[in-house]
Design a protein that fits this description.
- By secondary structure, the chain is mainly alpha-helical.
- The chain contains four helices and two strands; from the N terminus they run ααααββ.
- The chain has a two-stranded antiparallel sheet with strand order 1-2.
- β1 and β2 form a beta hairpin.
- α2 packs antiparallel against α3.
């Protein structure tokens, strides 16, 4: 009985070894390992780009929101939050609308608080001094 069990274990191990050898052989027409690795690398690079594009777009929108908020505050606009909402939902189109509709003029530093304000404004929108 013990001999039969050892013989069956040996036969199973030889069968598994033979299957591994057969499966490891490259058949004609199959891609080589280098081609498979190259295809996997190209797929990974493509996925990296697909992840990178939305991340960069999100960062661009955040930067636009920050710039619009600071510029609207420096120009003394009371509706800075509305302009930020417009830029948030319409992105670059909202930025173009904001640039053409904002008060025009040169921004200078306030001597009291050091923040920017319009040269033509009567008082600083940040500190309220003239």
């Amino acid at each position: 009985m013990k001999r039969l069990r050892n013989l069956s274990i040996f036969a199973m191990s030889q069968l598994l070894f033979f299957c591994n050898v057969v499966l490891a052989q490259r058949r004609p027409g199959e891609p080589s390992d280098a081609e498979v690795c190259g295809a996997c690398g190209a797929c990974g690079a493509g996925m990296g780009v697909m992840i990178l594009i939305p991340v960069v777009g999100f960062e661009l929108n955040i930067a636009l929101l920050i710039w619009v908020a600071r510029d609207a505050k420096a120009r003394g606009l009371d509706s800075a939050v509305l302009w930020m909402a417009l830029v948030l939902f319409t992105s670059v189109l909202g930025l173009i609308i904001y640039i053409f509709s904002r008060p025009q003029g040169e921004l200078v530093l306030c001597p009291h608080c050091g923040n920017k304000r319009l040269r033509t404004s009567a008082k600083c929108p940040t500190c309220g001094n003239a």
